[in-house]
Amino acid sequence: MDTKSLNLDIITKQYRHNSKAAKGYELLMNLLGDYDSLPLETLLRNHRLNPILIASEIEGRENVDTLMDYYSILQITLLANYINHPLPENLANEIDVILETPAVKKYFEEYYPLVLPQLLIKQIHTDEYLKNNIEIDSTPLFDRFLILNHFVKSDEDIQLLLWFFDDGWIGKYSLKDFIALLRDKTKMLNEYSNKTHPLNKVLWGFTKYTQFLTDYAELIRDCYHNSILQSAIWHYHGYWFNKIENKIGTNLKLSIQSIKDTFAQFNSKELIYDQHSYLTSIDEIREWKSNISHLDTIEQDIDYLFNTNLGQPINELNHRLNSN
Amino acid sequence: MFHTPPIFIDEGLHTTAFFTIHQPKTLVIFVHGFNGKSVETWGKFPELIRTNDDFKNADVVFYGYDSVRAQANNSALKFYTSLLKLSDISPNKWGIERDFIKTNFRYNNILLVAHSLGAIVVRRALILAKTENKEWIKNCKMVLFAPAHRGARIQKLVTESLPSIGKILTGLGFITIPILDDLKPDSLTIKNLIHDSLHLLKNKQGDFTIATQIIWANREIVVHNEQFLHDPVPVLIDDKSHSSVCKPDETYLTPYQIVVNSLHA
Predict the structure, then answer these.
(1) Given CB atoms, is B164 within the 8 Å cutoff of chain A?
(2) pLDDT tens-digit profile of B51-94?
(3) pTM of the predicted structure, to 2 decimals
(4) Burial class, A286, CB count within 10 angstroms (exposed 0-12 / middle 13-18 / buried 19+)
(5) Distance to chain A for B72, nearest Cα, Å
(6) Are residues A121 and A321 in contact, defined by beta-carbon separation less than 8 angstroms?
(7) How many Å lie between the alpha carbon of B13 and the closest alpha carbon of chain A?
(8) Is this complex scored with an ipTM above 0.95?
């Protein structure tokens, strides 16, 4: 087996056969077998018009989303020259059947636009795969992409944070409480520094997610030589990055601002005698203070990732294929 | 290319493996340090492993664990459990089926490469293996980069290891990190590690506690560069800090070469 075939084999095993995508495929095929298309249309409805409240529906849609995620990853592997093209016939047929189903098409084109599966199906139809003439080997970049994604998707603290910042509640706590605690040190120490407190997990999620954003921004910058691949990697998290302007990004920045405000008011003596702080001397505090400027860098990374210009090359390619 | 793309395996936290497509003889496990990440701690190691043939007969695992919130000994216990599975179960179970691997397959050697806190985790895990009389312990080797097995300067550790927001929140006391206590030079964790290792060495059962190679950074400010019992004389690397000493790149291949040399020794 050559390297690219092995890559496809492993990617398919991990993201299609040994993940929720397998159940998503099974579910879609079962519903496709029905004479009546209504159950499938109902499952894949627009949640903004008709909310998803039943557990089995939430699970079913999660499985379908994971299948879409696999198709998005496949598209990026093609752009990174990580796998061979054309795709094997059985895989191309599967993608064709699934993505050409009207209810599924509506789901990923209209209700929750995902440009990567849209590109994939167009290439399969025309049997013309996008030529990548860039000579630089993208394998290490793609490996990094997989590793970063695995980190962000499997980290419980980060997933909790994203849900929380996207208007979620944890018990009786909302974002308002989180911001209040960042602004009030006494409250924080009295109520939230307890390891098992739910907002403590959000705090860790916040720390880790900002680190992820920095790493992801670096990965995207490192793809500068291949604007299409760069754009595809941005699109993979487009759901969150597009939303950044509305909620996630605003809430991240609000949280950073709250930390800056608290930081501006700290009292050196208090910190030295505070058993929760690791700082024990004026010298240590002086060194520690220099970190505040890094918060500006994190804000810049947030602005960079929110920059929808990064999505343009793939959007344009998609439009071009539409008009051909 | 001699290895698979990254395969995420259900052991530890974000553990990532690169399996060889040839006959494996050695299992190489990388173990990160305080606030490290399973793969990212190791710079270009994955890329070098995939593009060169030095690891052609080795399965490589980048082990991850919660190095911030869990106690060092708990992490060691979990690592030991993972090590049991990785060494005793056929690697075909981990997401790649290689026809030439039989169900009774066992690795000839295990090479453990650890950074900072990872050295404590690995050493304690091997002592646990000894306690349970695991045969494979005789075939284990350790390569330790900037090991924290003689303790660390806590403030420097936080400064160098945590991301900016983590540093600020920890300084303000918003986040507490109990594991920092385990890393103080006079902590029970370290004192007991030395005591138990010494006890085994005195009873002529502690060869496995002697590292194959120790690597110190010349610009080290985080851990105490102190000899650990019968370890060999360390290699001192110029112009590298605590966190950069284990990260090979285009201009700094020493860590890669050291691990390759230990692999083939």
Answers:
(1) yes
(2) 999 999 999 999 999 999 899 999 999 999 999 999 888 888 88
(3) 0.93
(4) exposed
(5) 17
(6) no
(7) 9
(8) no
